[in-house]
Write a structure and sequence with these properties.
globular; 6 helices; mainly alpha
């Protein structure tokens, strides 16, 4: 398998396989695939897009391309709901704010402020 074949395949509109994406990410993170080839692949993805399966495979390949962080203790500290509640408030059905989880009493609401995520005119 060669990086150029993967780039050409994506450029021509074909769906990449999980193995091709894994190869490309591993090669890039190891330094075997140069930046200009990664840029060519990114341009092909920009113009041709990715299928939902490709996106999932790419995400998985990137997630396991290096060291991973075990957040098990964080999830337990916030009552097992850390990823859903983010140790803050989450609106329950009916508009009432959810109760704070034990161990998260000092945290304020962690939802992003809308002013930070506005689109800027080009």
């Amino acid at each position: 398998m060669r990086a150029t074949d993967i780039i050409i395949s994506k450029r021509d509109g074909h769906e990449l396989s999980a193995e091709e994406l894994q190869f490309f990410i591993q090669g890039y993170t190891a330094g075997d695939i140069p930046d200009y080839q990664a840029a060519a692949w990114a341009m092909a993805v920009y113009w041709r897009g990715m299928t939902p399966r490709e996106t999932a495979w790419l995400t998985q390949a990137m997630a396991f391309s290096g060291q991973t962080l075990d957040i098990h203790d964080v999830a337990l500290r916030c009552g097992g709901q850390a990823l859903l509640r983010r140790c803050g408030r989450q609106d329950e059905p009916g508009g009432r704010p959810a109760r704070r989880q034990p161990g998260c009493a000092g945290r304020q609401d962690v939802r992003p402020r809308p002013v930070l995520f506005r689109r800027h005119p080009r």
